[in-house]
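From the pipeline queue, job 12 of 40. The input is one protein chain; the requested action is below.

Action: predict structure.
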Amino acid sequence: MPEFSPGQSTATVIARGVRLQGDFTSQGDVLIDGTVEGHVTTTAQLTVGPEAKLKADVTANDAVVSGSIEGTLTVKRRLELKASASVIGDVTCEMAAIEAGAVVNGNVSIGAKSAPKAAAATKAAVE
């Protein structure tokens, strides 16, 4: 779980045991340890905990994934996939750090040419 210093806003948390269905939109950091089905969008950082299960199209500015995502993952800037991560679906981001053991099953587009598409998707999803 990310650490927050005083004066820094806290993240919206979808805790373990919580199940969310539908569209979820935030302009702040989001931490998911529960189950989400639908769409998840944040203009800040998304953290998907190791026990999280998402069946969702996901759009974020930055993302750290340790759990599982089944759906399209669009990240405007930096995506970090931890060893326990599993992504079944297409992935688009500007930069990526992928640990050994992470699973990705889908089309992957990384680089500056991918970033404008990811930025447009993030902006459109929030509006």
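Job complete. The two ends are 28 Å apart (CA to CA).
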